[in-house]
Amino acid sequence: xxxxxxxxxxxxxxxxxxxxxxxxxxxxxxxxxxxxxxxxxxxxxxxxxxxxxxxxxxxxxxxxxxxxxxxxxxxxxxxxxxxxxxxxxxxxxxxxxxxxxxxxxxxxxxxxxxxxxxxxxxxxxxxxxxxxxxxxxxxxxxxxxxxxxxxxxxxxxxxxxxxxxxxxxxxxxxxxxxxxxxxxxxxxxxx
Length: 191
Known about the structure:
The protein has about 190 residues and is α+β, with helices and mostly antiparallel strands. The protein is about 50% helix and about 15% strand. The protein has helices at about 1-30, 40-65, 65-90, 110-115, 120, 140-150; strands at about 95-100, 105, 155-165, 170-175, 175-180, 190. It has a four-stranded antiparallel beta sheet with strand order 2-1-6-5. It has a two-stranded antiparallel ribbon with strand order 3-4.
């Protein structure tokens, strides 16, 4: 179907080129009003006929694109809805945060696990909310977060101590992925 529309567009451009040639031929022969079938009259009739045919072929080719573009858009919307549902209903935390360490979003399971609403976490730094500066063994989690921000590929799989809103300690295994162009066009991390 897509190939057929391109064939029509190509044919339209060929016919349009033929119309331009006929246009030039029309200037080569001066119009003779006494001869109804003079070369100038024939060239003008051919030229306008070619232009009309070219326009018809062009719009016929373009018209075939609309259902294809609509199908692609509907497929993309269906996939986005499917993945949104997966993220919203998964029993796993999906945390988006920027390269400065501020929370961009968290899914409902993460909200429930940490005891925060999305509006409570959004825009706040992960340190001091869901990650303490130091864990119970004294490891510097603030430095670890900085390292994840700078080199996320080194922390693709990471397990560390977290904390909920009430101060309860949680151990979570994270998969960190760097996204060069997130939803707002800026780089972000998905954990």
